[in-house]
Amino acid sequence: MPNVSTEAVAPNPHLAQYEAKGLKGRILSGVQPTGNLHLGNYLGAIRNFARLQNDYECLYCVVDMHAITVWQDPKALAAQTREIAAAFLAAGVDGDKHAVFNQSMVPEHAQLAWIFNCVARLGWMNRMTQFKEKAGKDRENVSLGLYAYPALMAADILIYKATHVPVGEDQKQHLELTRDIAIKFNNDFGVPDFFPITEPLIFGAATRVMSLRDGTKKMSKSDPSDYSRINLTDDADAIAQKIRRAKTDPHPMPETASDAEKRPDADNLLGIYAALADMEKDAVIFEFAGKQFSEFKSALTDLAVTKLGPVGAEMQRLMKDPGHVDRVLHAGAEKARAIAAPILADVYRTVGFLNP
């Protein structure tokens, strides 16, 4: 298990049913089908999905409805949805034991999102910093979906009454909104414990993977240089070549953490090694202190190929069998709907929607 903590919150009455099964709760997490998954996506999210599945009931979805808040090529969206699902499975998620599905196959997400659009306040949405960043200066020309998608994100979580959500720094504000919506719904309709106040799962020493060509910029699929990132589908030769060509500086390896922090390219490679080896970065710095970059890069290459090679090979195999991936997604959607449908029915009754 990774080093995971939960923030201090009030007692959660929804946890008892999971504790009785020897579990810590229910997790919902999703990844957008943007394609070209890279090392940053793997270390920041996908590998943790498999690590959590023995301790929680897990629902992992490909959030294709979130993806279309900006225009997507339909054929590419379908292919990328399968690619993300393949990555979940290749990283070790058990699709038989847990629900792996794409969001659009479970209509309850959208149905609950409309109710949350009516619960959330305009002022809350106006404070969402990600919308401001994504909309940029042309705010009047972006889709309504891009503005309202935090309410859909809240519905993604609460349609399953998820007790925990893994979050990074860029998603903490959206989880806070989810909690605000749950509290307001519960208060507005006089159902104090209907929706849980979902707790964040925060991974110790958050992994922020930077570009191999510029240690001051985040690793990104949109970077024009393929040498800036390690793709999950890269083979051993590609991984080795990219690490060999990764930007460094003329000095030997840093000898202290403070020295590493002043050298972003070296610090990034040390962080990647630490994350892949499940080591503290200080321990990696101590191991390679004063050595030549060539020696360190050789060790990093061996480690990366060992850790990522099997994942990439399995992804490639699964992507050549789309029928199998589709069957996993279909079965996962059935599991998800079995949970979501009765919760939505309770929401409808609570709100006063008539269902004769």
Structure characterization notes:
The protein is mainly α and 356 residues long. The chain folds into two domains: 4-208 and 321-351, Rossmann fold (3-Layer(aba) Sandwich); 226-318, Tyrosyl-Transfer RNA Synthetase, CATH 1.10.240.10. Helix content is 53%, strand content 8%. Helix 4 packs across helix 14 (293-319), helix 10 (236-244) packs antiparallel against helix 14 and helix 12 crosses helix 14. The protein is globular, with a radius of gyration of 21 Å.
Count the beta strands.
6
Largest sheet: 3 strands, mixed
> What is the element string, with H for helices and E for strands?
EHEHEHHEHHHHEHEHHHHHH
Radius of gyration using CA atoms only: 21 Å
Name some characteristics of this structure.
356 residues, 15 helices, Tyrosyl-Transfer RNA Synthetase, three-stranded parallel beta sheet, mainly alpha, three-stranded mixed beta sheet
Task: Please write out the topology.
Blueprint: E1 4-6, H1 16-19, E2 26-31, H2 39-52, E3 57-62, H3 64-67, H4 74-90, E4 99-102, H5 108-119, H6 122-126, H7 129-135, H8 144-158, E5 164-166, H9 172-188, E6 199-203, H10 236-244, H11 257-261, H12 264-277, H13 281-288, H14 293-319, H15 322-351
Structure summarized in a few sentences:
GO terms for molecular function: ATP binding; tryptophan-tRNA ligase activity. By secondary structure, the chain is mainly alpha-helical. It is built from 15 helices and six strands.
